[in-house]
Amino acid sequence: MASYIFRYFNVAGFGETTRLLLTAAKVDWSEENPEWPLEKPNQPFGRLPVLIEHSADGSPDLVITESGTIERYVARTYGFLPADPLNAALQEQLRDRLNDVVLAFFAHKSVSEGERQSMHDKFEELLDKVVAVHSELLRKNGNNGHLFGTELSFADINTYAFLRMFLINPMPSLEHSPQLVKAKLTPEIAKLAVTVEADPLLEAFVSKKGGLAEYVLHK
Amino acid sequence: MSQHRYVLRYFDIQGLCETLRLLLTASGVDWTEEHPEWPKEKTNQPMGHLPVLVVSNADGKPELVLSETLVIERYIAREYGLLPADNLAAARQEQLRDQLHDVGSTHIEYMHSTGERSAELVTKFEQDATCLVSVHVAALRHNGNNGHYFGDTLSYVDLAAYAFFKFFSNAGPRSLKSKIGLLDYTRIPEVSKLMAAVEASSSLEPYFTAEKVNGPRLATRFK
Fold it and tell me: GST N-terminal domain location, by residue (chain A) (predicted)?
């Protein structure tokens, strides 16, 4: 059976989905947090994250980079994304739009004072949109705490990682946005958070890093 | 292979969609393009933005609407054999395509930036574009410098790279002029060979020769 090294910074960032997927896949994996930027030239694309796959039979290590590619590779290999391209796309599109929300938040911080409010409004508008899209999908799926089907999926894990980023020990640079995200949580999304977190496949992660149930259930 | 018909809904610009237009053409599917009134139609899109791909059955009845550019690209590429089914082989293409997208995004951010952030982005673009060229040249060489990234037929990353390098060969007035020379494919033999191979591909003939490709849009400036 293959084992993995996940190389990234010691932050949630764009790594949490992969950490959750590796945990849920029940593979042997560990993490490296390289010295940065010292180790930059040693990475295949000069960036993190990087995933290294050691095979059981001694053949050379596989190295994969780019956070989205890593996530999809692990998700597909271990059955968290369907093989069917259209059904996989329905899950993947949610991930990309959630990423847009994160990027919109950080973008509003990097613009000049005069533009900041309108960029913040854009962030909030986008946040409202993803909350509405997710809540509707959850309702259509019978409000069982899963976005698709009845088992833990890539989409579930990615949405959960997004919530963790904003609600548990958020980085100082996220400022007031954790309160904003929390205030917008719908009952359906809160149920997803609680359901995903309670999944036995994620027990090792949650017991080590803590859970967000208390954040979503108490307003 | 499914018997779907497709409508690409986007603006009448290159923008983010040339790779997708190339994919739709190369796949041989039945597709057209529509350019909705904007921002009037914004609230009618599933994720509030474009592009979207309307997926219809063989009779033209819409089944669902897919959003997010790269997701749509990978769906078409996988469905029509331009991206392998094998996870690892697909990941090898996807990571290269993601890198092209990252550098493209940095440039877009630069075009909208001001002040200190602008200066940061110049440095970032220079570093990331230099790395990209080195990685992509290595990949093309590793494959025997035959004008393809993998094997000897047209694939997803060939098309994405074509759109990327073409974009930077005629980037507009707000582009990062001092640095986009790093991506001048006429100075990179392996990439020049790729560009020629894509242009010579028979499955892309409609893209390069038609005046209007599958709808109201005039064929791209990539000629």
Answer: 2-82
